[in-house]
C-alpha cells in the first residue's frame, strides 16, 4: 500500500484549492451531513433551475479526501440534470468500491479510485456525494 | 519491567503491517491480548464450557467456579469489600447505563442536579442526558481550566444540596490526565450526592482502590486491560445495589417466579439476567493475573516515562499542537499537526505500520472545547517502547513533509 495510491496530485490540488467552497443564496437547497465516527461535516447547497444543477457550493470541515471529493463533485454536477447527477453519484459509488467507473466529462474524479484500497476512508470520500443524493431526493 | 519479555507474550505484535513491523499505539481504544489470556479463553472452551449456576454436572460446576473465581479476582483487583459488589457487565458503557437506568432514575426528580465534566466520554454523558430528560433533573458541568484540568474550588462551586449524582472519568481518554476523583467524591458526599467513577482509562494503567476512593459506583471494561471484548464490571456499594431494581429480567437473576409476580436473586446476580459471557470473565480473570504479576505500579511508571518521552519527542515537531498538560499523563498523547487532518495523519502512519486513532474519540463536547473538529491520538500500554515513540515521531516528520504545503 503506497501513499501515492491515495494522495494523487489532483486530489491534493483540490484539497489545497477547493472549488465551489462557500455558500449560496437562501433559496438554494441546503443539506448538512456529518460523519459521526470522525466528526467531519459538510453543508452542500444547490441551486436547481429547469431540472438542472445551476450551481453547487459546499462548506464544512474534513480531511483531504472528503474535501477534495466535495470540490470535485460540485464541479462535476454543474449543468447536469438531476438524473445525470444521480447517475454520477452511482458511478462514484462504484469507483470507491474498486469497480469500473467512468467520468467522461470530469476525469479528476477518477483520481479518487485509490480510496478503495483504504476501506477506512471510503466514508470520507462519499460524504459529499451522499449529501448530493439527499439534496436531489429533497428536490424530487 | 522487562518490556522485551512482555512483548514476547503478545502474539499480535509480531507481524508486519504494510511492510513495516507493527507499532500499536491505540490501546486506549482496545488493548492487545497476551498469550495467557488467549489460552485461558481457549482452555475454558476446550475443557470446562457449560452454563453457570444451573447444572448439577461436573462441567457446570467448573464453569461456575471459573466465572465466580473471576469475580473474586475483580474484587481483589479493585479492593472491593465483597464479591456481592461486583456485577459483570458488557463493559463500561453497560455498567454506567445500569447506574443511570436503575439508581439515577429512582432518585432523581424535578429540580435535582447531576454533575459531570465537559471532558466525559459519550458513555458517561448520554446516559445522564437521558436520565435528565426522563426525570426533569438538570445536568451541570464542572468547568475546565485552560489546560483541561479540574480545580477543586470549581467542584465546590458546582456541587450543592440539589446534586444527586456526580459522575466523572478517572482518566481522560483524550487528555490523559488523572482527575481528582477521590477529592470530588468527598465533596459530593458532603452534599449528600453519590459519586460515580468512569474507570475505563484508569483501571488498565494504575492501581485502583474503590474503598480508598470512597466512590459509590465504579465502571470499567476488560478489553482495554488485556482481556477480551464484551466483559467489564460495575462496582457498587452494597447498600446502594441492594436498594436498586434490576433493569434486565429473565433467567439467572430470579429467585421465585410466579405467573404474576417474581422475586430476584441476591447480589450480584440480580443484575445479571441471562447467560453471562463466561469465557469473557475467565479471560478477564487471566488478564488480572497477568497485570498483577507485572505489577500495576510498574505499568504506571513505564507509561508515565513513555508518555513524557513522547511528549518531548512530539513537541519538538514544528507546527504540532499537543492537547492537555505535560504532567502525569496516563499513556495518552493527543495532537494535531498544523492543518493536516487527523484522518490523513492516521492514514499516512498506517502505511508505515503505525496504528493511531483519529477522530473525536467519543468526546464531541471536549473536541468543541478544544476547538478541534478532530484530533489524532497515540496511546501506550505496557508493551510499548521508546522505539515505538521514535517510529511515531519520525513518521510524523514525514507526514508533515508530505502535506507540507498545508501547514501554516
From TrEMBL, chain A:
InterPro entries given in the database record: NIF_FeS_clus_asmbl_NifU_N
Coiled-coil regions listed: none
One matching Pfam family: NifU_N
Domain NIF system FeS cluster assembly NifU N-terminal residues, every copy: 7-124
PANTHER family in alphabetical order: IRON-SULFUR CLUSTER ASSEMBLY ENZYME NIFU HOMOLOG (PTHR10093)
Name of the protein in question: Fe-S cluster assembly sulfur transfer protein SufU
Organism: Paenibacillus mendelii
From TrEMBL, chain B:
A single MF term (Gene Ontology): cysteine desulfurase activity
Gene3D superfamilies given in the database record: Aspartate Aminotransferase, domain 1 (3.90.1150.10), Type I PLP-dependent aspartate aminotransferase-like (Major domain) (3.40.640.10)
Domain of life of the organism encoding this protein: Bacteria
Positions of the Aminotransferase class V domain: 23-392
Catalytic activity reported: (sulfur carrier)-H + L-cysteine = (sulfur carrier)-SH + L-alanine
CDD domains noted in UniProt: SufS_like (cd06453)
EC number: 2.8.1.7
Similarity field: Belongs to the class-V pyridoxal-phosphate-dependent aminotransferase family. Csd subfamily.
Tagged with keyword Transmembrane helix: no
Keywords, comma-separated and alphabetical: Pyridoxal phosphate, Transferase
Cofactor: pyridoxal 5'-phosphate
Free-text function comment from the UniProt entry: Catalyzes the removal of elemental sulfur and selenium atoms from L-cysteine, L-cystine, L-selenocysteine, and L-selenocystine to produce L-alanine.
Protein name: Cysteine desulfurase
Pfam families assigned to the protein according to its UniProt record, in alphabetical order: Aminotran_5 (PF00266)
Amino acid at each position: 500500500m503506497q501513499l501515492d495510491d491515495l494522495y494523487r496530485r489532483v486530489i491534493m490540488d483540490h484539497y489545497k484549492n477547493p472549488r465551489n467552497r462557500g455558500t449560496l443564496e437562501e433559496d438554494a437547497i441546503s443539506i448538512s451531513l456529518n460523519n459521526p465516527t470522525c466528526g467531519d461535516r459538510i453543508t452542500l447547497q444547490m441551486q436547481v433551475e429547469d431540472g438542472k444543477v445551476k450551481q453547487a457550493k459546499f462548506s464544512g470541515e474534513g480531511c483531504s479526501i472528503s474535501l477534495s471529493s466535495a470540490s470535485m463533485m460540485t464541479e462535476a454536477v454543474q449543468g447536469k440534470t438531476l438524473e445525470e447527477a444521480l447517475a454520477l453519484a452511482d458511478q462514484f459509488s462504484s469507483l470507491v468500491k474498486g469497480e469500473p467507473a467512468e467520468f467522461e466529462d470530469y476525469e479528476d474524479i477518477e483520481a479518487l479510485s485509490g480510496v478503495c484500497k483504504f476501506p477506512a476512508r471510503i466514508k470520507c470520500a462519499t460524504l459529499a456525494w451522499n449529501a448530493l443524493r439527499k439534496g436531489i431526493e429533497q428536490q424530487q | 519491567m522487562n518490556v522485551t519479555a512482555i512483548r514476547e507474550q503478545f502474539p499480535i505484535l509480531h507481524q508486519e503491517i504494510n511492510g513495516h513491523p507493527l507499532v500499536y499505539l491505540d490501546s486506549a481504544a482496545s488493548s492487545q491480548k497476551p498469550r495467557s489470556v488467549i489460552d485461558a479463553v481457549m482452555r475454558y472452551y476446550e475443557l470446562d464450557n457449560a452454563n453457570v449456576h444451573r447444572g448439577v454436572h461436573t462441567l457446570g460446576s467448573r464453569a461456575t467456579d471459573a466465572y465466580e473465581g473471576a469475580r473474586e479476582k475483580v474484587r481483589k483487583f479493585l479492593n472491593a469489600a465483597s464479591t456481592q459488589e461486583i456485577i459483570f457487565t458488557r463493559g463500561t458503557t453497560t455498567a454506567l447505563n445500569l447506574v443511570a437506568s436503575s439508581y439515577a432514575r429512582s432518585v432523581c426528580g424535578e429540580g435535582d442536579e447531576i454533575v459531570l465534566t465537559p471532558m466525559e466520554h459519550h458513555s458517561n454523558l448520554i446516559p445522564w442526558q437521558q436520565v435528565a430528560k426522563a426525570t426533569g433533573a438538570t445536568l451541570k458541568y464542572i468547568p475546565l481550566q485552560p489546560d483541561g484540568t479540574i480545580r477543586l474550588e470549581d467542584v465546590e462551586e458546582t456541587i450543592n444540596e440539589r446534586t444527586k449524582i456526580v459522575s466523572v472519568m478517572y482518566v481522560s481518554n483524550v487528555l490523559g490526565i488523572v482527575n481528582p476523583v477521590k477529592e470530588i467524591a468527598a465533596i459530593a458526599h458532603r452534599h449528600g450526592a453519590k459519586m460515580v467513577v468512569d474507570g475505563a482509562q484508569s483501571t488498565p494503567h494504575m492501581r485502583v482502590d474503590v474503598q480508598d476512593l470512597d466512590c459509590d459506583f465504579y465502571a470499567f471494561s476488560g478489553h482495554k486491560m488485556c482481556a477480551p471484548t464484551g466483559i467489564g464490571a460495575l462496582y457498587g456499594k452494597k447498600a446502594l445495589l441492594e436498594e436498586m431494581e434490576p433493569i434486565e429480567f429473565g433467567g439467572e437473576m430470579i429467585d421465585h417466579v410466579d405467573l404474576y409476580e417474581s422475586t430476584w436473586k441476591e447480589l450480584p446476580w440480580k443484575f445479571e439476567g441471562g447467560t453471562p459471557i463466561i469465557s469473557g470473565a475467565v479471560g478477564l480473570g487471566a488478564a488480572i493475573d497477568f497485570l498483577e504479576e507485572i505489577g500495576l505500579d510498574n505499568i504506571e511508571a513505564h507509561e508515565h516515562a513513555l508518555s513524557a518521552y513522547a511528549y518531548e519527542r512530539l513537541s519538538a515537531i514544528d507546527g504540532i499542537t499537543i492537547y492537555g498538560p505535560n504532567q502525569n499523563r496516563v499513556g495518552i498523547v493527543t495532537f494535531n499537526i498544523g492543518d493536516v487532518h487527523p484522518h490523513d495523519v492516521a492514514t499516512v502512519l498506517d502505511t508505515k505500520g503505525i496504528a493511531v486513532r483519529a477522530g473525536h474519540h467519543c468526546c464531541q463536547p471536549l473536541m468543541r472545547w478544544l476547538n478541534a473538529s478532530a484530533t489524532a491520538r497515540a496511546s501506550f500500554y505496557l508493551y510499548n517502547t521508546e522505539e515505538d515513540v521514535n517510529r511515531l515521531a519520525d513518521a510524523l516528520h514525514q507526514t508533515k513533509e508530505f502535506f507540507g504545503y498545508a501547514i501554516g
